[in-house]
């Protein structure tokens, strides 16, 4: 089988009608139908159920389609990588990062460019969930994330344990304290990340262990927005020290938790089945060095 046959099958399975897939592929409907029949003959089993007006995948067809989508994505991204190298002489590495990682990126890029001046870097701030999706879709080469997903296709490597602290307004009742216990947040309004974020789970679990349910009234994906809300007295927020210290704000006070017991891990993540050039692996070494 060849790439064109796989593209024909993917278009048919997605559009669920030969006529729509044929129009998308700019070929005749009979030609497309013959291609699918030829493909079914090659693989040795029926891929499509044609008994209804709208086509559907057989059970084996669904399994085949999952692999086809992955193969086509890998092929297209390989072609794109090669085209980038042809145009620029070095290509481009795309990185998805969580917001707290932004303060280290200028130094990481500077060090990388000293070794690979011809390779471009594209950086996108993303949620951990979006990073996982982008890696699986081959939209990025590498992610810096705070969550590990149970996905055998992705490889994770821990690079740092980030301390978590409490951000409060300057006039807050905790302002004269250097440290607090989690139970002290029982009456506080929390500004926190959305469900699914690792840091939120850490704090919710810690509050439950302390014997109370956290009062999370405001939710956001952005540490910057959470910081701004804390600043104007809307509530308090638990954030990574790395972010708080790199975005020093005189109108927000940082209070530690006693014994510094609350931490989150930061990971490098990449797709284990994607071809990655040597410069990618050197970039990982530079990132690890800056996080150590």
Automatic annotation (TrEMBL):
Organism domain of life: Bacteria
CDD domains, sorted: PBP2_LTTR_substrate (cd05466)
Keywords linked to the UniProt accession: DNA-binding, Transcription, Transcription regulation
Coiled coil, from the record: none
InterPro entries, A to Z: HTH-type_LysR_regulators, LysR_HTH_N, LysR_subst-bd, WH-like_DNA-bd_sf, WH_DNA-bd_sf
SUPFAM superfamilies in the cross-refs: Periplasmic binding protein-like II, Winged helix' DNA-binding domain
Domain HTH lysR-type stretches: 1-58
Pfam families linked: HTH_1, LysR_substrate
UniProt similarity note: Belongs to the LysR transcriptional regulatory family.
The protein, known as: LysR family transcriptional regulator
Organism: Tigheibacillus halophilus
């Amino acid at each position: 089988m060849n790439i064109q046959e796989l593209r024909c099958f993917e278009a048919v399975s997605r559009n669920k009608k030969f006529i729509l897939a044929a129009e998308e592929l700019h070929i005749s409907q009979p030609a497309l139908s013959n291609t699918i029949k030829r493909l079914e003959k090659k693989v040795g089993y029926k891929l499509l159920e044609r008994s209804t007006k709208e086509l559907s995948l057989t059970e084996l067809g669904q399994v085949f389609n999952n692999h086809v989508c992955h193969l086509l994505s890998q092929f297209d991204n390989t072609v794109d990588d090669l085209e980038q190298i042809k145009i620029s002489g070095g290509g481009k590495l795309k990185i998805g990062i969580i917001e707290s990682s932004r303060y280290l990126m200028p130094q990481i890029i500077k060090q990388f460019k000293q070794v690979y001046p011809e390779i471009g870097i594209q950086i996108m701030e993303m949620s951990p969930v979006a990073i996982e999706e982008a890696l699986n879709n081959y939209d990025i080469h590498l992610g810096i994330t705070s969550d590990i997903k149970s996905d055998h296709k992705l490889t994770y490597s821990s690079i740092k344990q980030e301390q978590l602290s409490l951000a409060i307004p300057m006039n807050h009742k905790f302002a004269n304290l250097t440290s607090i216990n989690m139970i002290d947040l029982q009456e506080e309004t929390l500004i926190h990340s959305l469900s699914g974020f690792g840091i939120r789970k850490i704090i919710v679990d810690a509050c439950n262990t302390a014997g109370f349910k956290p009062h999370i009234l405001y939710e956001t994906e952005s540490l910057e927005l959470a910081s701004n809300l804390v600043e104007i007295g809307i509530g308090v927020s638990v954030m990574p020290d790395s972010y708080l210290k790199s975005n020093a704000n005189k109108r927000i006070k940082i209070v530690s938790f006693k014994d510094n017991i609350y931490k989150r891990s930061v990971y490098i993540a990449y797709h284990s089945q994607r071809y990655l050039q040597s410069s990618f692996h050197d970039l990982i070494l530079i990132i690890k060095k800056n996080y150590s």
